[in-house]
Amino acid sequence: MISQDTNMTPLQKAAKIAFASQYAFFVKSQFFHWNVTGIHFQELHALFDVIYTEVYNSIDEFAEKIRSLDAYTPASFSRLSMLSEIADETQVLPPEGMIAELLADCENMCVVLKKVYDMAEAEGEHGFSNFLAERIDRFKKHAWMLRSSLR
């Protein structure tokens, strides 16, 4: 058995936390997509679809970036849950609650990703930091769309 967490650099650890957080965000946004109800169902169902699809489409590249740092990518639900900075949601919230929670999570993702970005830049991992900069931009766009939906 290969130990996944021994002798990791701070960047590798932070990258795993960011990856797990993004994965948790993906799961939550898909959960909200599946379970949203109400008068704005169609709009929110579509918005959540756009968000979770975009996030999902970056997961494989994120995992490969971690592997390029010579670290293993977490993949079990228990490990992802342990590492994530995004809280799990088990309740079906009202639509406004779903939007507000995803908005807060987008803002949290920007903070988490920025920490890893700064570390990657400091270590000269510019390919990884470029990827992270794009992820931050995408989460800022998701936040803007969600914020606009609350108004």
Helix share, percent: over 70%
Q: What is the H-and-E element order?
A: HHHHH
Please report the distance between the alpha carbons of the first and last residues: 51 Å
Number of domains: 1
Please name the CATH topology: Ferritin
Unreliable spans are: none
The helix count comes to 5
CATH A-level architecture:
Up-down Bundle
**Biggest β-sheet, characterized?**
none
- Any idea what the CATH superfamily is called? Ferritin, core subunit, four-helix bundle
Shape: elongated
What would the average pLDDT be, to the nearest integer?
95
| CA-based gyration radius | 16 Å
From the structure above, extract its key features.
Ferritin; 75% helix; mainly alpha
Task: Write up what this structure looks like.
There is one protein chain. This protein is mainly alpha-helical and 151 residues long. The protein has a single domain (10-150), classed as Ferritin, core subunit, four-helix bundle (Ferritin). It has five helices and no strands. The protein has helices at residues 10-35, 41-68, 77-83, 95-122, 126-150. Helix 1 (10-35) packs antiparallel against helix 4 (95-122). It is elongated and about 50 Å long. The mean pLDDT is 95.
List the helices and strands and how they pair.
Layout: H1 10-35, H2 41-68, H3 77-83, H4 95-122, H5 126-150
Condensed summary:
The protein has helices spanning 10-35, 41-68, 77-83, 95-122, 126-150.
